Amino acid sequence: MQTLPKERRFETLSYLPPLTDVQITKQVQYILNQGYIPAVEFNEQSEPTEFYWTMWKLPLFNARSTQEVLGEVQQCRSQYGNCYIRVVGFDNIKQCQVLSFIVHKPNQQSGGGYRY
User: Fold this and answer.
1) Of the candidates 101, 106, 103, 100, which has an alpha carbon nearest to the alpha carbon of residue 83?
2) Where do the Ribulose bisphosphate carboxylase small subunit domain residues begin and end (predicted)?
3) Predicted TM-score of the model (pTM)
4) How far apart are CA 29 and CA 74, in angstroms?
5) CATH of the domain at 46
6) Is 51 a domain residue?
7) What is the C-alpha to C-alpha distance for residues 69 and 89, in angstroms, rounded to an integer?
8) Chain-centre distance of CA 9, in angstroms?
9) What is the DSSP letter of 14?
């Protein structure tokens, strides 16, 4: 058994290699398929002690396609490229956030995942 290298981990899916564009699209599609309400959030840091992120616009209550959600991610990234950006899914029955994952990290090298 091998120990993972010591490095900063970020929320759900952080122990996997960076998500490709196709994998990000599939995760967003999962949010929509489950009936969760997607939202885009950003923050200058992603510290475990940082509980509040800024929401990019309102949650996407009427989103029906992945392209709508990913379009908002791209708009957020173009304005706040120096911030961490994540997609979250809210369950309107349980009234809580049920999943989130990082789709953009600041100063990220291009070529593979997290590029929307």
Assistant:
1) 106
2) 9-106
3) 0.80
4) 16
5) 3.30.190.10
6) yes
7) 11
8) 14
9) T
